[in-house]
Amino acid sequence: MVSRVIRVLLDVSAVPTQPVGAGVYTVELARGLAEHDAVELHLLARRSDLRWNMICPRATIHNQVPDSRGLRIAWERYRGSRFARKIGCDLWHGPHYTLPQRLQCATVVTIHDLTFFDHPETHQRVKVHFFRRAILANARRATRLVCVSQTTAARLHELVLDHAPVTVAHHGVDHDRFRADGSVVQAKFDNELLAAHGITGDFIAFVGTIQPRKALPTLTKAFSSIRIDHPELRLVIAGGDGWGTTELNEAILANGVAASVIRTGYVDDSTVAALYRRAVIVAYPSLAEGFGLPALEAMACGAPLVTTRGTAMDEFLADAAVTSAPGDADALTAALRRALEPEQQSFLRSRGPQVAAKFTWSACIDTHIGAYGSAIESASTAPTTTR
Fold first, then answer.
1. Are 387 and 143 in contact (CB under 8 A)?
2. What class is the 184-356 domain?
3. Euclidean distance between CA atoms 150 and 156, whole angstroms
4. Could you tell me which residues come within 8 angstroms of residue 284 by beta carbon, excluding any fewer than 6 positions away?
5. What is the CATH superfamily name and number for domain 6-172+361-380?
6. Which residues of the chain have pLDDT under 70?
7. Residue-wise over 9-34: b if at least 16 C-beta within 10 A, else e?
8. Does the model's pTM come out above 0.70?
9. Spatial distance between the Cα atoms of 196 and 10, rounded to a whole number of angstroms
C-alpha cells in the first residue's frame, strides 16, 4: 500500500445545492477525506459554489468548473486532465460515474447503481443515453471502481466483463444527527420543526426526491387502503421535485387522499431526522436502489420501516424492516398494516438502531482510502498510457 500522503482531486462539481443520494455520499466523502491524515484533499467545484470552504475547511478548493450542466460536462471531458496535471494530483476521483479524457494519474470512479440499464423508464431519456455511455466507458478506463453495494458490483460484472477492479464501500450514517431519542426535550424540538410544515398528529412519512423509481403512486394507493381503518393518519411526502411529479399528483387525486397528504418539498437534515423519529411508519417503496441511504437513516432513528425486498437494501435491512414486493400496492398495504401492529412497532423501533449502528461514514472513508492506495499502486506498475 502507499505509505505517503495521497494528493486526491475529488470532483464535487455535480453535487446539487440540495444534495440527496449520491450528493450526500459525495459531501460526506469530502468531509471525511479532508480530515484524514493520509490525504491531501483538493476539491474541484463549480465557479459559483462557495459552500465547500465551510464543509471542508482543511481542503484546497478549486472553483474552476462552469455552472451550466452542458459546459460543466464539456469542461470535465476536455480540460479536466490539464487541470489534474497542473495541481500534480496522484489520483482523480469521479464520485458520479464520469471521468475526464486523457488523465495521466490514477483514477477511481464510483458506480452507484445500474438503473440506467435495468430501469430506463425511471429516468429522463437524455440521462439514460449519457450515463449508459459513461458507465460502460469509465468502468473500463478507470484504474479502480467503487460500488456502493455488492448488488451494484454484481450487476456491473454482468454488464461489463472487462471492467476495472472493484471495491465495495457501503454508505454510512451520520449517527450524531440520525439517532433514536425518545426524550421529552427531543420530542418538543422535533414537533416544533414539523409543525412549521403543518405536520401534527400521526403520519406515515416518505423522504426522497420525487421520481418514478420511488413508486410514490403505489404508496398513495396503499395509503388510501390503510386510511379505511386509520382515518386519522396522514401521508407526508418530503422531497424536492425530480420528475414524475405529475403522475404522483394524479395518483393522489385518483385515490381520494388529497386532504390527507402533505407535500413539504425539500427539507434539511434536522427536519428529516424529526420526520423519522416522529413517524408511525417510514415508507420507502423504491423499485430499485444502488444502496438506499434514506432507509438506513430511518432505521438509525428508530423508525418502523416499510420498504421493498430484492434490492441493494437487502444488504443492510436484516430483520429491522417490514418488506414487500416492489410495485405491488396490495403487498405494500399488507406491509403497512403489519408495521402498524403494536408489537411490530416496538420491535422495529428498538431493532433499527442496532442494525444501523454498524454503518459509519468513518468506515466508508477508510475503505475509499484503501481503494485509492490500490489504484495508485496499479497505475505505477502499468504501462504508461493516457486514460
1. yes
2. alpha beta
3. 10
4. 206, 207, 208, 214, 292, 294, 295, 298, 305, 306, 307, 308
5. Glycogen Phosphorylase B; (3.40.50.2000)
6. 1-2, 382-387
7. bbbbbbbeeebbbbbbbbbbbbbbbb
8. yes
9. 37
